[in-house]
Amino acid sequence: MSNDPRFFAFLKERIGLDVASVGEAIIERAVRQRTQAVQAQTAAEYWQHLQSSHDEQQALIEAVIVPETWFFRYPESFATLARLAKARLAEIKQMRALRILSLPCSTGEEPYSIAMALLDAGLAPHQFKVQGMDVSPLSVERARRGVYGKNSFRGGELSFRDRHFTEYGDGYHIADRVREQVRLQVGNLLDPALLANEASYDFVFCRNLLIYFDQPTQKQVFDVLKELTHVDGVLFIGPAEGSLLGRHGMRSIGVPQSFAFSRHAEPAKPEPLPVFMPAPLPPRSAAPMPAKPRPFSTVSAHVVPIKAPASDADTLLSRIATLANEGKSAEARAACEQYLNNHPPAAQVFYWLGLLSDVAGSALEAQGFYRKALYLEPQHPQALMHLAALLESQGDTAGARRLQARAARSERADSEPKR
């Protein structure tokens, strides 16, 4: 019942969601839940109800979207923002307040992190304003309440909580001085009239969204983001999305793990490319796939099929991806070792080990793991790109370009129609 393609088409039209990026099961589950909630007896009956009710349309979208965020996620991005904000204020001679946009802002952790980072960096309240926007009214309403549970506070550095929050029941209430810096509203990035009368933004945060669109929608959304970002501004994206921006003429600003891009950054020396987490890749065989994340949630890597028993191997690979994306590097590395002790070598495992070493700053170790991944799978696209980033950061521009060319050829081959 719930695999009716009309529901996939509805979500594609309304929020740009590419069903292939999340898997049909996620959408089917949401449709079943909503069908039962409105006591519809058939798919056709629920479809008719969906078409006639704006509230139900939003309820289905809410059932598909499950926000996964926390304060100061990707902390280097906020440290970089603080440095760039000070430089930008000096550049414009403090003639106006900085304009910063966060979308999708989910339940508010990101826009409030932006405000806290800038206040902690010494910016005065009149020197910046943050605008948060999300397609989900429920998420925006939660953000406006400003009350957060323990799941919104992750990692070892939580001193900001003492500075900017007060205990509130079983959670924490954000301080008014932070709330006052942030304006929140409901909005859809695919709406042609989105922010049509607004001035461009000095900094735009748009994380882990593009990966859930097909290529035409990615291009459409990128054009909107480019229009919203000041010509001298910076766009912060998710770890998996750097290659997408690169294809559209954006360049990394050269700060590792900031995931920050500008239109025409031209560093004086070879630019270290950012480390990107793996984006979902199209399946190359009919082998079972691991469970996929819900949209706008933590990104998981595609698992390359291997000869080991699918259920156990895929479960462990999925666990590695989850641990790594949650920042649990030691546990992720241990899971990689567990995999290699119990299953045949797999390129994806060595890729993860390379990425974990890369993030930890162990460049030589990371190179070794990336090369092992490429030995097992010579056209592994993410290993190619990350090894290229390492080589370029070390001044081996020629070697980096060769690997990037290999990755580009692989991408073109995958996109060409098979005869």
From TrEMBL:
Would I find Transferase among this entry's keywords? Answer: yes
- Which GO biological process annotations does it have? methylation
Keywords annotated in UniProt: Methyltransferase, S-adenosyl-L-methionine, TPR repeat, Transferase
Q: Which GO terms describe its molecular function?
A: S-adenosylmethionine-dependent methyltransferase activity
**Repeat positions for TPR:** 347-380
Matching entries from PANTHER family are given as: CHEMOTAXIS PROTEIN METHYLTRANSFERASE (PTHR24422)
Region of interest (Disordered), ranges = 400-419
Q: Which domain of life is it from?
A: Bacteria
Record domain CheR-type methyltransferase: where = 1-241
Q: What is the protein name stated in its UniProt record?
A: Chemotaxis protein CheR
Q: Where is the composition biased (Basic and acidic residues)?
A: 408-419
Q: Name one Pfam family in it.
A: CheR
Membrane-spanning residues where? none
